[in-house]
Design brief:
Methan_mark_8, 285 residues, DUF2099 family protein, 4-stranded antiparallel β-sheet, 8-stranded mixed β-sheet, 9 helices
């Protein structure tokens, strides 16, 4: 079977971006006009213009080989305090989990038991929709305590990744999901799994309900419904402009563990949730 050298990412503002042969060949229209997190990127996206988004993706390709055979998969640097990869890396170091099922360009589903592998893959890349397998990237992952269960087609399959992790003998598994149906499916079959909902901008009301009922941690991104539905039920909120909600005791433990390990200054405050700084992405959708 022949695989096209193509990667599809939903980048800043959930903009559809297509990369082929290491080049950005398509940039769609963003769903939102402003994101405080995107302004902090190494190549910042301030106005959500297609040109800025293209330059941001091109910077990622040149700096760490995203969507190429030269993909760097190891990093020890935090980008944001409560990012999914930062939280899962910390949870692994604290032995709250023993692996994380995540997605990587050039490999698809990855089972990672190395915190620097989790951060190297997820810290600077999110919203992966489709990818293709690169032998070089897969070997790099495997040499850094990672497993790639679907090497042939680099499929992105969180449920299948959890099943493979269990087969490999892992028992405290975390997984990132961008689909509320996937979260529900995993929760029903494998209720002990730590489920982290990511890339949720544009989630419909029913998706927000499903994420709320089936996730341990939720990144609210630019979702108005998650702020409305998940926010009041959260046990802990991390961040304010792009809030991360801990919905369960496991989720709370992971967020507090990250606070314990960080060298950053942190404000802790009793507050009715959800809390907003008034600097949310806009518009919330």
């Amino acid at each position: 079977m022949i695989f096209t050298d193509e990667h599809i990412i939903e980048a800043a503002g959930k903009t559809r971006v297509v990369v082929r042969d290491g080049r950005v060949v398509e940039v769609g229209s963003p769903l939102i006009g402003h994101c405080p997190l995107a302004k902090k990127f190494k190549s910042p996206v301030v106005s959500m213009s297609q040109d800025e988004i293209r330059k941001n993706i091109e910077e990622r390709i040149s700096s760490f080989g995203m969507c190429t055979r030269k993909r760097c998969v190891i990093s020890g640097d935090d980008f944001v305090l409560f990012g999914a990869s930062e939280l899962l890396s910390s949870a692994l170091l604290s032995k709250i989990i023993d692996c994380a099922v995540i997605a990587c360009d050039g490999a698809g589903t990855v089972i990672a038991k190395n915190p620097e592998l989790i951060q190297g893959i997820g810290g600077k890349m999110s919203g992966l929709v489709k990818t293709c397998p690169y032998e070089e990237v897969i070997k790099n992952i495997e040499s850094n305590e990672g497993f790639v269960p679907f090497k042939e087609d680099a499929s992105i399959d969180p449920f299948g990744g959890v099943e493979k992790a269990l087969e490999l003998g892992f028992s405290k598994i975390a997984v990132t999901v961008a689909s509320s149906h996937e979260a529900e499916k995993i929760r029903q079959k494998y209720p002990e799994t730590v489920i982290v909902a990511v890339h949720t901008t544009g989630a419909e009301r029913e998706d927000a309900v499903r994420f709320t009922e089936n996730s341990d941690i939720i990144s609210a991104c630019a979702s108005s419904f998650l702020r409305e539905i998940a926010g009041p039920k959260a046990l802990v909120q991390g961040g304010s402009s792009v809030p991360v909600y801990a919905m369960t005791e496991n989720g709370k433990k992971i967020v507090l563990s990250k606070i314990q390990k960080t060298k950053m200054q942190v404000l802790l405050k009793g507050e009715i949730l959800p809390f907003t700084s008034g600097k949310d992405p806009s518009p919330l959708i």
